[in-house]
Amino acid sequence: MVYRLLREEGWWFGSRTDINVCGTIEVARKLGPGHTIVTVLCDGGSKYKSSLFNREWLLEKGFQIPP
Is 41 domain-assigned? Predict the structure, then answer.
């Protein structure tokens, strides 16, 4: 989700925010149309430059490189 939000929306968030967004999407699917759902976008992506947004770190940990 972290890379999807960056690629599709231009939102540079961290992992905590992305977990919240994933949970929000799941709740929205379960509730269906006509509901208002609120979540907190609680962290930015800048503190993840050395990990989630670092190609070498991702390769070292054996993660897939996002498009």
Answer: yes
